[in-house]
Design brief:
With 684 residues, the chain is α+β, with helices and mostly antiparallel strands. It contains 24 helices and 24 strands. It is elongated, with a radius of gyration of 35 Å. NAD(+) binds at residues 35-39, 84-85, 115, 138, 175, 292, 316.
């Protein structure tokens, strides 16, 4: 019958597209579509050719295995072709495969072998008298590339076989791949150096093995697993493939730890399901399972079709890489203020799960991959890992696409978005006001080392925020006992205790208050240093970045964080509300010589002259009359420098109960030691 012109055109288009993708994959090592899309196109062409056999030509992609050898490598001719395998995508197709074999062999049950289909590069190893003499890629199945020198750099591949019972000429076939852990580590190193990273382990293996300089291959963490044999001369091998695998292992060749002998179609299916569950934790990427008739005699009876053996089958697992459309890029603001771009995708099944979102990490990643809204993108999902966009398919990019740029204002609260030098993450500066950061900001504000509001724990804060009773730290001081008592697991007494704790917290220190604000990079020590240096909050708020860098231990990045925080209007408004709510502290005498120029009012400063003024003091052991934090605050108010370690420059060591190595070191160095009683006397 005649072939409709539309069908012929469809077939021609499919062949052109498959040939182009085969060239990109096998020759250039630069695939533009995931394997699942290639498989879909191939199956579509196979279906059409089955319906219209007269359209089949010798140059159709269905009639060959792969692509051509690169001209830079010497050509290698395979005496026994390296064929590919037919694919199955369902249990029904597996059952059909088993049924055909049972009918052909006239047997009730068939013994199969099952092993992972590793996602790497097929390789043929040639041994003569136990010595590795050649290695080649599969190429188009007949003509491959001679990569002997590169293969010799892979340490897991023996240059000489062990034992002495191997054939004089032995061809071993297997898969070269890059283990996942080493792949991730390699890519991380490349990112740090600002160099090219691989899209996936398969590309990494192919690109590494086909380097013209063997030293480049040697620097890549490649491995290999053997899965069969080719030409055998001057010796024999056992009939069963499982016994052959045992021989290969005995001769020092790497074989699969997941290799197994199974019985019948059900045994194959059970193996498939078990391996699918393990897939996310396996040390290498797989895209399916390979079943083979175990007996070579039975294989000979089954024979071959044009491009694959009838006695073997590749049972593909759900694709981990697929294509879909990038509909939009939204911005999520995390609990720490970090802005994360998230891709909104046209729904697509990846690894058996429908995916609609994928992380884009940060602006640098978007720029590096050149990802834009409207692009057709390749999505990858390995196991339970969050899906990510591997790359855009540039040939399908809309003509009017525009590069994506992160917003300069927080999409949640409108505060400024700042990205500091040498940081990949951009952050919202409205930490005290931003709803996305609300719970974490209030929890930190109330914590023991900050405002020390007893009874105001994480769960209670969550209830208060969820009930819309508080929106920022200043709202805490407007709470009433009745509001608290109405919350779950809160009675009148507990509510009164929290209100009393809030009242007590109003009288604090400048250092605690600064720490409670949750300024990035400002911990307890830096907060104390700032308080001691400037003496007053107003001076810190008005300080320039240059002024802030004059503070001991405050560098450029920390100064930027402090400056941006205090110049964010939302933060300024909440600090004012806290002061209006009665939060206060004693102004201390500033260390900064330019404090007056920063509008510090010193008339209310506590000018204290004591033995600690200008001295280095170390606290060790347990104090019974006050906490270590309170003792530190008192010393700082007296102009002391509180250190965490004892040295020759230490002036005093205050030793409480159970003082340890610091006390011993002080005694050795002859440092003046004060017990708690002496310390309290000097404080008074």
């Amino acid at each position: 019958m005649s072939v409709p012109s539309t069908i012929q055109q469809q077939i021609n288009t499919l062949r052109q597209e498959l040939n182009k993708h085969s060239y990109n994959y096998y020759v250039l090592d630069a695939p533009t579509i995931p394997d699942s899309e290639y498989d879909r196109l191939m199956r579509e062409l196979e279906t059409l050719e089955a319906q219209y056999p007269e359209t089949i030509t010798s140059d159709s992609p269905t009639q060959r295995v792969g692509g051509q050898a690169l001209s830079q490598f010497a050509e290698f001719v395979h005496k026994q072709p390296m064929l590919s395998l037919n694919n199955a995508f369902s249990q029904e197709e597996l059952n059909d495969f088993d049924r055909r074999i049972r009918e052909k062999l006239n047997l009730d049950s068939i013994e199969y072998t099952a092993e992972p289909k590793i996602d790497g590069l097929a390789i043929s190893l040639h041994y003569e008298n136990g010595i590795l003499v050649a290695a080649a890629t599969r190429g188009d199945g007949t003509h491959g590339e001679d990569v002997t020198q590169n293969i010799r750099t892979i340490k897991i591949i023996p240059l000489r076989l062990q034992g002495d019972d191997y054939p004089a000429i032995l061809e071993v076939r297997g898969e070269v791949y890059m283990p996942l852990a080493k792949f991730n580590a390699y890519n991380q190193q490349q990112k740090q150096k600002g160099e090219r990273v691989f899209a996936n382990p398969r590309n990494a293996a192919a690109g590494s093995l086909r380097q013209l300089d063997p030293r480049m291959t040697a620097s890549r963490p490649l491995s290999m697993t053997c899965y069969g044999t080719g030409i055998i001369e001057g010796g024999t091998l056992p009939d069963k493939y499982s016994d052959i695998v045992a021989c290969l292992k005995r001769w020092g060749l790497p074989t699969s730890a997941y290799f197994k002998v199974v019985q019948g179609a059900q045994g194959c299916w059970d193996y498939y399901e078990d391996l699918h569950k393990q897939r996310a934790k396996m040390p290498f990427d797989i895209d399916g399972v390979v079943y083979k008739v175990n007996s070579n005699k039975q294989r000979d009876i089954m024979g071959f079709i044009s491009r694959a053996p009838r006695w073997a089958l590749a049972h593909k697992m759900p694709a981990q890489e697929v294509m879909t459309e990038l509909l939009a890029i939204d911005i999520q603001v995390g609990r720490t203020g970090a802005l994360t771009p998230v891709a909104r995708l046209a729904p697509v099944s990846v690894g058996g799960v429908t995916v609609t979102n994928a992380t884009l990490h940060n602006q640098d990643e978007i720029d590096r991959k050149d990802i834009r809204v409207g692009d057709t993108v390749i999505i990858r999902r390995a196991g339970d890992v969050i899906p990510e966009i591997v790359a855009s398919v540039l040939e399908k990019r809309p003509a009017n696409s525009q590069a994506f740029v992160l917003p300069t204002q927080c999409p949640v609260c409108g505060s400024a978005v700042v990205r500091l030098k040498e940081e990949a993450v951009a952050r919202c500066e409205g930490s005290l006001n931003c709803p996305a950061q609300r719970k974490q900001a209030i929890q930190h504000f109330a914590s023991r080392k900050a405002m020390n509001i007893e009874g105001l724990g994480e769960k209670l804060i969550e209830q208060l925020v969820d009930a819309n009773l508080i929106h920022n730290p200043a709202d805490l001081y407007r709470l009433t006992s009745d509001q608290l008592a109405n919350l779950e697991r809160m009675g009148k007494k507990s509510a009164d205790n929290v209100i009393q704790a809030l009242t007590n917290s109003r009288q604090t220190t400048l250092a605690r208050f600064l720490y409670a604000l949750g300024i990035r990079e400002v911990g307890e020590s830096t907060a104390r240093t700032l308080a001691n240096y400037f003496g007053d909050l107003n001076a810190i708020q008005q300080a320039s970045e240059i002024d802030l860098q004059k503070v001991p231990d405050v560098g450029e990045v920390v100064a930027q964080q402090i400056y941006h925080f205090f110049h964010e209007p939302h933060n300024q408004a909440i600090i004012l509300k806290l002061q209006q709510a009665g939060v206060q502290w004693a102004t201390i005498n500033p260390v900064a010589s330019n404090a007056t120029s920063n509008n510090v009012t010193n008339t209310t400063a506590t000018n204290v002259n004591s033995i600690f003024t200008g001295k280095s003091v170390v606290l060790t052991g347990t104090l019974t009359q006050m906490s270590r934090e309170d003792a530190t605050e008192r010393l700082l108010q007296m102009g002391a420098k509180v250190s965490s370690s004892v040295s020759k420059k230490t002036d005093y060591v205050v030793a409480g109960e159970n003082a340890g190595s610091k006390l011993e070191k002080a005694q050795t160095l002859g440092v003046t030691i004060l017990d708690e009683s002496q310390f309290l006397t000097h404080l008074k």
